[in-house]
Amino acid sequence: MHFRPADGNSFCRTRNRRIVYGIWQPTGEDLVVSRRGDQAFEVHCHGGNSACSAILSSLADSNVRQVSPAELIRAFENPWTVSTQLALTQATTARTAKLLLHQLGILPESIRKIGELTRTDQVHAAIEQLERMLGWSDFGIQLTKPRSVVLCGQPNVGKSSLANAMIGFQRAIVHDVAGTTRDVVSQLTAIDGWPVELKDTAGLRQATDTIEAIGIEKARTEIELASLSICVFDHSQAWTRQDQDLLESIVPDLVVFNKTDLASMYSSHPDRPGGMQTSVKTGRGIEHMIDCVGRLLVPELPAPGQAYPVTEAQRLKLADFLDRLRSPQQVDPKEISELLVDIE
Q: Where does residue 149 rank: exposed (0-12), middle (13-18), buried (19+ CB within 10 A)?
């Protein structure tokens, strides 16, 4: 035994769940150990990764095999419970954790019921349930994957200031020289309880140098991949042909006119589209805009009893199972049901 209690007593006679302080002899680390069973022990140490690695190394020298958290859980739970538990550990907001915890209670049972429907030749009912589950798969997977919200627009319209206001602290460099942001500046945050990666992009205009051109190209790529795009314009400036072309080329989810604290004689221009009005300086419209972004990101929620996959592996497993059910003449449905047993 590597552990020596500090009080000099034999650890072998220690009762279960008692916490004992002592020394890990191979490394000299001071730590605490609790017996959890005849052959089960819980070790708590400090000192960072190096201390943990040293202790694990000394255990490996004694032929103790290290296993991953997933492998440990899998030994005691069914695979659907395990994969959902692991997804729950990746939750970054209280709202998503609550939804994942709810799925932990209903998803494995829904899988069991689908398997039972298949084994009793109720294939049509099983297909309907799978289609409903897969219909919410994007929602489920994004509970642990931040949605991308991109701020875009021409230089010096206040994108960086707006991003800082939405996040709540200064992250991007703000300056009154057009073109300050040359790359995509990202920050993880939460909007209405949903994990979000807010991205402030380079001003979209005719590039004046190679570096700026690269930044603009990255900005357009981020816009195309975004869950939601916000095109920002300067409320105090005239509506131009360049503004119109930019709006038509992006087709954003939300149009925002920033800098409403500045006087403007152009707000009634006939070609100017409608949009939300904000001022970072006065705070006008910021909270309303954030609320609107939250509603646009998740316009609808699944019913409380609706199960859905919460990982890509779960989605792929269900999609494959559905494909096979739709061609039942190729494989016996009772054999197909066995495909639900395991998941990566």
A: buried
pTM above 0.90, yes or no: no
Q: Residue 187 and residue 159: Cα distance in Å, rounded?
A: 14
Residues 79 and 109 in one domain: yes
* Distance between CA atoms of residues 39 and 45, nearest Å: 19
31-89 pLDDT per residue, tens: 888 877 777 778 887 767 777 888 788 888 877 888 776 566 556 567 888 889 999 99
Residue 128 contacts residue 119 (beta carbons within 8 Å): no
Domain range for 105: 74-136+310-340
88 with 180, same domain: the answer is: no
Domain count, the chain: 3
**Enclosing H/E stretch for 22:** strand 19-24
| CA 104/CA 83 separation, integer angstroms | 9
181 and 227 housed in the same domain: yes
Q: Which amino acid is at 103?
A: Q
Cα 219 to Cα 171, 200, 213, 227, 240, distances in angstroms: 17, 8, 10, 14, 21
Q: Are residues 220 and 290 in the same domain?
A: yes
pLDDT, tens only, 307-327 = 999 999 999 999 988 988 887
d(Cα 157, Cα 139) in Å, to the nearest integer? 33
Confirm whether 303 is domain-assigned. Answer: no
Task: Supply the DSSP string of 72-111, one letter for each residue.
Answer: HHHTTS-HHHHHHHHHHTT--SHHHHHHHHHHHHHHHHHH
